[in-house]
Amino acid sequence: MGDSVADVSVVKMYAAREIIYPREVSGRYASVRWFFVWLTQLVFYGLPWLNWNGRQAVLFDLTARKFYIFGIVLWPQDFVYLAALLIICAYSLFLFTAIFGRVWCGFACPQTVYTEIFMWIERKIEGSRSARIRLDRQTTSLNKISRKTAKHIAWGLVALWTGFTFVGYFTPIHFLSTEVIALTLGPWELFWVLFYAFATYGNAGWMREQVCKYMCPYARFQSAMFDKDSLIVTYDSQRGEPRGAHVKAESTADKKLGDCIDCSLCVQVCPTGIDIRKGLQYECIGCAACIDACNTVMDKVGSPRGLIRYWTEHAMLGRWTSAQILRHALRPRVLIYSAVLLVIVSVFVGTLLTRTPFKMDVIRDRGAMGREVEDGMIENVYRLQIMNTDEDMHHFRLSVSGIDSIHLDGAAKEIELGSTESRAVPVRVRVDAGAGQKGSNKIWFTLQVTDGDELEIKEKAVFFIPR
Hints:
By secondary structure, the chain is an alpha+beta fold. The chain has helices spanning 2-6, 28-46, 79-100, 103-108, 110-126, 129-137, 142-167, 173-182, 187-207, 209-215, 218-221, 237-240, 265-268, 289-301, 313-318, 322-329, 332-354, and strands spanning 51-52, 55-56, 58-61, 66-69, 72-74, 232-235, 308-311, 358-364, 371-372, 378-388, 394-401, 407-409, 414-417, 422-431, 439-449, 456-465. It has 17 helices and 16 strands.
C-alpha cells in the first residue's frame, strides 16, 4: 500500500502562467501602433461629447428606443441596418486577414490598445523591463508598495473613465456627468460603469496575453482565413540560421553563422511571450514588435534589415520581391471577399441614404371585425402607429384606397408630428353599402408628406365586410 502511494505522480492539466515582462520597443511599427492608440481613443473618448442639432451626436437611447448617429435616427424597426453593419464588419475582417494577417489584433483591437496604455503607465511608474522584474522579486518594502499602489490607482482611474465613457453612449453623457458630480448615479448606470471599468482593468492590467491566447476566438479560427499568400510576421530562417554571437574580426567570406545573433530581443518585446523564430504560432497577434527590435539589432551589427518582417509563405520560399507579393495579393479569395463587401456596402449606404424618413404600421382592431353604421355604411377601426424618424417637424396627409367609396371618417386626415415623434392614431374607415365583397378586402393606407418632398409610403391592410 505504501509503495503504490509513493508511485503516484501529479499530472497538471494546465500549465502555470509565467508572467511576461514585455520590453519597450521603438521603430516604425511601434509608431503605427501608437498612432492607432491615439486615433481610437480620441474617437472613443471624444465622440460622446460632440453635439449635433442640439443633442448628443452619437447616442444609443435604449429607454426611448432611438439610436442617434449624427444626422441619422434609427428605430427598433431599423434592426436590419445593424445586421448589415455586422456583416460588413465580418467581411472586412475576412478580407483584411486574408491579405494582411492579424493586423486588427496587432494595431486596433481594444485589448491591444488598452494593454499598450496600461503597459505605458506601468513603465512610467515601475521602470523598464529589468526594473520591473527586480521590483517583483524584492521583498515587501515601502518602495514596492508605493509603486504598486500608484500603478493600480492610475489603472483604476483609466478604467473608470473608460467605463463612464462607454455608458455615456447609452445615457446622455452630459446628464451622466451631472449625476456623477452630484453623487446621484442610478443603480443600473453605476453597475455598468463599474462593470466595464472592472473589465478594462482586469483584461488590460492583469490578463493581457491570456485574453488573446485563450479567450479570443479569433486566435483559434484565424488559420482558416490564412493561406500561403497572406502577410504574416515571419522569421527568415534561411538567412538567420545557424544563429549565434558574431565575432567582429570575422570577415564576410569566413562567416559561418547566420544573421541572427541569438540576442532574444524578439522574445523580450513580444506581448504574448512567443519566439517568432519557431514559426507562425496562433499566439502571435501580428503587432510587429519583434520586427522593430530585430531591425534595431541588424542596424547595430551592420546586417540588412528584414531578418524578421511581414512576409508570405510563398514569398519566403521563392524569395519574392515586393512586386511579386503584390501581384499575388489579388487572388480569387481576395477578389471574392472584395466583391461581396463592395456589394453589401453599396446596398447598405444606398438604402440608408434613400430611406423614407417616416414609418407607419397598421394594426386592425380585433374587437370588431366590421360593423354597420348609419346609412348602411360598413365601418372598420384601425390603429396606425406613425413615426417621424426625421429631426424636423413634418405635416402628413393620410388617405385610404382599395374599394370604391372607401374613405376616412373623422379628423384624422391631417397629422402633425414633431422631431423624432411617434404617435398612435386611431382611424375609422367606412365604405358605402354594397361596395366591396363580402368577407376580407385588401385596402391600402397612404401617408404623404405635405411640407417638403412629395414622399409617401403605403401599407396594406384588410377591410372586413360582414356576410
